[in-house]
Structure formats: C-alpha cells, structure tokens
Design goal:
456 residues; alpha/beta; Rossmann fold; Helicase, Ruva Protein, domain 3; 4 domains; 5-stranded parallel β-sheet; binds adenosine-5'-triphosphate
C-alpha cells in the first residue's frame, strides 16, 4: 500500500467490502472492514482510524437509515475528530443531510462511481489531517495559556476596598456575565481582567486584550472585526479581528470610553447577536466571547452628554467592579512594597532584604497619581539605585525628585524635553491619559506610542 491514512469500512454486504478494499487498497496505508457494526466499538479500542465509510442500513429490509445514524453518533462519541463518509441508498439525500448535521463529513451513493468515491474519501482524509492539526494547535495554546496564567502573581491586598473587589470577583468570575472594570490608570484593571479569565470556565482558552485607547479611529473596525482580502488597499489577505480571535475565551476591551459613537452601534450588535461581519465580508461569523471592558472615564456622564450609548453601557456593565486608587488603600502598601521589592531584587540580582519603617512611611504618605504602575516604577528605581540591604526613606525617590530628567530642563535636546514634558503631563493629570494627551496637544494613540518609545 502506498497511500496514507487508515480506513475502516462498515457494511454488511461482503461483496461490496471486497470490491472497496481491492479498489482503495493502494490509496490508504491500512484498510479494515467490518460486516457487523456491533463489532465496531471493540475494533476502535485497538486502532485509530482516519476515515470511516459507514453504511446507513444494516438490517435486511430496514431502510430508515436510523441504524447508520446510531453508529455515526457512536463513532463521533469515540472520536470527535472522526471523518465519516456515509454510504447511502440511491436518492437518500434527505437522510444524508440529516447525517451531515450529526457530524458526517460527506456521503457517497451506492451507484458505483469509483472516482467519486475515491475523491470523497481522499478529501475526508485531508479534512482529518486539518482537524488533527487544529487539535494539536489548541492543545499547544492551552499549554501556553496555562504557562502564562501560572506566572501571573499579584497582591490581593487586605484593605476593605480590595476585599470588596475580590468578594465580587470570586462570585462573578465563573459566570458568563460581562464585566465593566472602572478605575484610574494603573489601578490594576488589566490584571483583574486576567484574573477573571483565569477563574472562569474559559481559562484554558485565549485572553485577548485590545487597547482601544491606543488605536486610531480608522483601525477600530478592522481590529475588532477583522477584514477580508481586498476590503481596502492594504488588505492583501484575510485577517481575523479580536472578536474572532477571542472566540471561546475572554475579550478584554481596555479604554472602552474611546470607541467612537458610530462604532458603538456595531460593537453593541456584535455583543448582542454574538456575530460579527469582517470588513469587506458579506456573511456573518459566530463568535462566543465573554467581554470584560475597562475604563477610567465616567461612562454614565458620557451617556448624559450623548457621547456613549446607554444600551451599550448596560450590555457591558452587567457587573461593575470599581478599583480603588492606591491612595485609598494605603493599608496595602507594605505588602505591595515587599512584593515589588522581591520581584526587582530577583530581577536585578540585588541583595536587598527589606524596607526600613521610614521608607514604608514615605510610601504611604505619597498620593500616587499613577497608582500601582507608578508605585512599581518607584520601587524598581529604588532597587536599581540602592547599594544597601535595607531601603530607607532616602532611597525612595518620589515625585519630581524621582525623575532624573528634571535636571534636563536646561537642556535644549528635543528628545529629552519631550520625554520630560510627557512625564510631567501624566503626573499633572494624575495618570489620566486622555487629559495628558490633551494638555500635550497630541492624541492618545500618539501619547501611548511615545510612552512605549521612552519606556515611561
Ligand atoms: N494587585 C497588584 N499586585 C501586583 N501588581 C499589580 C497589582 N495591580 C496592578 N499591578 C501592576 O501595576 C501595573 C498596572 O496595572 P494594570 O495595567 O493592570 O492597570 P490598569 O488599570 O489596566 O492601567 P491602565 O488604565 O493605564 O491601562 C501592572 O504592571 C500590574 O502588573
């Protein structure tokens, strides 16, 4: 035999089995035949087949096809990636359609057309290979997700505000409810969104993050819904949008308040109907996503001003969780400080054991406009710059003192000044990126590009 793939033929007609086997022999690496379908399950225990050829009627005089449907189901239960081709009586199209709904991949009629039978079986084998590849990729993805999730460590905190956050989160994470996370920049919204995913029944599927604040308006639609080749000049091939990518898992829509009004309608339709239409496409694609959205804006105020759709808001905030700013949970600061100290001491291979009381006091007295993101950076800087095993108050370089760029105001270097201005604008607006961008006279996506560029 020179072919690839294992074929099992199940038919009570001995002559037909013989003829099939003879004809198909060189196209498959192994062909087994069974006359009595009752023997099939024990056969399946010992061998994995790629393609099945299954007769729809076994008992003499019975032509309902029900037996075939029964055995088809049993094969699919055994191997959900099985590729079953049915052998139907002439004119039994209705029955074949029913069987395909049950998972059969195709059917051939008993009228003897060898070429048709061969091409159908070879196509079924190709499909089998693709199905196995997809299964392999999904398995790989599961492992990667598991690995990513395992590495996510964070501080739950013991402040009342955070206890309340986690009380709600523990209750709702397992449900399919959409969740809206509200809080200032850097309060941990993305981290909490990941935790919701991790605690949900979707945890072995993907978590897809889309930052709507960093997208230019022209990209919103294609990023969310994908596009078909030729949809616009640069669309050289089909591309999946985030909705489709996240299907089966969680879609985290960060900075949801940034979605322009005309796209809010499309977003609402996609969430409601669980279907999207890629740009340039003419048919809809089913998507099964759980939405977690985040914002630092007051969406209710935006609704009142007419800049955010009320129906979309109610779709998104089935459950709303508000993350407190760090200045309102100072009880958590010692634990957070230790957490980041360990993290950065390990990373920079420093022998720093702990903070002195004075250092913690200084950390708790500051207002942290950039919240945990800023806190984390300050501890990182302190760890890098320190030469001792204990960090004291003077090792904690807060506010402008922490910015080594301050002395550069005398400089005429454009890059240095741009970086400094961005840092000051962010600080001045308490980490509110929209406001900071406005103060700097640039749009949010440019601001995000620059933050990335300067590693701020
Ligand atoms: N409880 C926590 N424990 C440890 N690290 C945290 C915690 N909360 C937030 N962080 C860290 O703080 C940083 C900011 O968090 P995150 O990106 O989740 O905030 P955000 O609210 O989504 O910010 P933005 O609104 O700017 O997108 C991240 O590096 C995150 O890992």
């Amino acid at each position: 035999m020179s072919g690839k793939g294992k074929l099992l033929i199940i038919d009570d007609n001995e002559e037909l089995l013989f003829a099939f086997k003879l004809y198909l022999n060189r196209h498959f690496s192994k062909i087994d035949t069974i006359r009595n379908p009752n023997q099939m399950l024990s056969k399946l225990e010992g061998e994995v087949y790629d393609v099945y050829m299954l007769d729809m009627n076994f008992k003499a005089g019975v032509n309902s096809g029900n037996e075939g449907l029964y055995w088809l189901k049993r094969i699919m239960e055994f191997d959900s990636n099985a590729c079953v081709v049915l052998i139907t009586a002439y004119g039994d199209v209705e029955l074949a359609v029913k069987a395909m709904k049950e998972g059969a991949v195709d059917f051939v009629q008993k009228s003897w057309d060898e070429n048709k039978i061969l091409s159908t079986l070879l196509a079924a084998y190709k499909l089998r290979i693709s199905k196995l590849e997809i299964r392999g990729l999904k398995e790989k993805q599961k492992q990667i997700n598991h690995h990513i999730n395992k590495n996510s460590q964070f501080v739950r905190g013991k402040s009342d505000a955070m206890k309340e956050v986690f009380r709600t989160l523990d209750k709702v994470a397992k449900t399919e409810a959409n969740i809206l996370l509200v809080g200032e920049n850097g309060t941990g919204k993305e981290l909490i969104a990941r935790e919701i995913h991790l605690l949900s029944d979707r945890s072995d599927q993907v978590f897809v993050h889309l930052d709507l604040g960093a997208l230019s308006e022209s990209l919103f639609e294609s990023e969310l819904f994908g596009y078909k080749k030729g949809a616009f000049t640069d669309a050289k091939e089909d591309r999946m949008g985030r909705f489709e990518l996240a299907s089966g898992g969680t879609l985290f829509l960060d900075e949801i308040g940034n979605v322009p009004m005309h796209l809010q309608t499309k977003l609402l339709t996609a969430i409601q109907n669980k279907q999207i239409v890629p740009l340039g496409g003419n048919s809809s694609v089913d998507v099964d996503v759980r939405i977690v959205a985040a914002t630092n804006s007051d969406l209710f105020e935006m609704v009142a001003k007419g800049t955010f759709r009320e129906d979309l808001l109610y779709r998104l905030n089935t459950i709303a969780i508000t993350l407190p700013p760090l200045r309102e949970r100072i009880e958590d600061i010692p634990e957070l400080a230790d957490f980041f100290l360990q993290k950065y001491a390990d990373l920079y291979k420093k022998k720093i054991v702990h903070f002195e009381k004075s250092a913690i006091k200084k950390l708790t007295q500051y207002t942290w406009p950039g919240n945990i993101r800023e806190f984390q950076h300050i501890i990182e800087k302190s760890v890098i710059l320190s030469n001792t095993e204990k960090l004291t108050a003077s090792d904690i370089l807060l506010g402008e003192g922490a910015m080594s760029t301050k002395r550069k105001t005398d400089s005429f270097n454009l890059t240095e000044n741009e970086k400094l201005l961005i840092e000051q604008a962010i600080k001045h607006t308490g980490g509110n990126m929209s406001l900071a961008a406005k103060e700097l006279g640039i749009n949010r996506s440019t601001l995000y590009d620059k933050i990335k560029k300067y590693d701020l």
